Amino acid sequence: MYPYSPGPAWMTWRALQLEDYQALEALDLACKQVDGTEPVSNLPADALQAVRVHADNTFCAENDGQIMAAGWVIALSSGADEQRLQLGGCVHPQYRRRGLGSLLLEWLEGCAARLGGISRVRRLIIRNEALTADAHSIYSRAGFGQVFAEHMMVRSLEGELPSVSLPNNVCLLPWSTETAGLYYQAYRDSFVDRPGRIEAAEEWIGEYEADADFRRDLSRVALLGEKPVAFVTTGDLGGFAWLSHTGVVPDMRGRGIAYAMLVEVLRGFQAEGYREAGLHVNVNNPAAIRRFYELGFRRRLTRARYEKTVL
Questions:
Q1: Mean pLDDT (whole number) for 77-105
Q2: Ranges of each domain in the chain
Q3: Nearest Cα to 233, choosing from 257, 213, 203?
Q4: Contact by Cβ (8 Å): 7, 100
């Protein structure tokens, strides 16, 4: 299946193949060198997942063995009345601002229309882990709206960490079978005043227990007496010391508990030789952004999700 616009004659337009793995790795590396290194996305794996479903769900623009742009569509779990489709792709930095990005999105939407059919509403989803102004402009012109955005913030672990103490009567415990319920209680109470779904205890704990990258030993729950008042869960994400989730119950905020917890777990990662720590924080959470900034974290890039509904 070819794009609806043929592009310049010096390009070869074709479907992706499993043999393109190394070329896709090179494309991924080139994009991350310009847009910012992040440990979340895996362009080769996502593209080749689509190839394995059907090569016609993918395409690339190639010249002299180099992939200049690649795109793919993956059907997600959907309901009876709505088809959810994820659109993925990128353009090599050397070939941007030549119309390839718009051409890529045009093809992706056409492929999604073919996959979704006409009997259901189509929800088109784009996840971009290193958003650029040009990408935002392309999405917006095509009618996609931003529904979610987070900053990736990073801190070097090669220098000294702050010297800080916990407030009196607060103690920290690592994750274990016995303490997992305390972590859940701290999570539930920390986010009770924020929008969004609070998972059931079995679901929330189970997700962590099933995560091979979860660091139980470097996660902490803070107790004031017997009451859980704060928590931080951590992991190894692509070589980063990763702060997965942090929360403090509303009536205990502003007392330095989260700051002290974060310093302790960062010190543990530092002792193991990790060079950088990272995290994601919602762009609409200025209090958390300020807290992480005070701890030495700086924004590296922004990830975002865009959606478009086609009736």
A1: 91
A2: 12-149+305-310, 159-274
A3: 213
A4: yes
Q: Strand order in 82-91's β-sheet?
A: 12-14, 58-63, 66-75, 82-91, 121-128, 298-310, 145-156, 276-282, 240-248, 227-237, 220-224, 170-173
Q: Which fold has domain 12-149+305-310?
A: Aminopeptidase (3.40.630)
Q: What is the mean pLDDT of residues 292-299?
A: 96
Pairing of strands 227-237, 82-91: unpaired
Domain spanning 159-274, CATH architecture = 3-Layer(aba) Sandwich (3.40)
Say yes or no to pLDDT of 60 above 80. Answer: yes
Fold: same for 12-149+305-310 and 159-274: yes
Which residues, at least 6 apart from 143, have a Cβ–Cβ distance to it below 8 Å? 308
Please write the tens of the pLDDT for every residue from 227-270. Answer: 999 999 999 999 999 999 999 999 999 899 999 999 999 999 99
Give this prediction's pTM. 0.88
Hey, what are 150's tokens? 């987070």
Q: Which two tokens stand for residue 89?
A: 């792709």
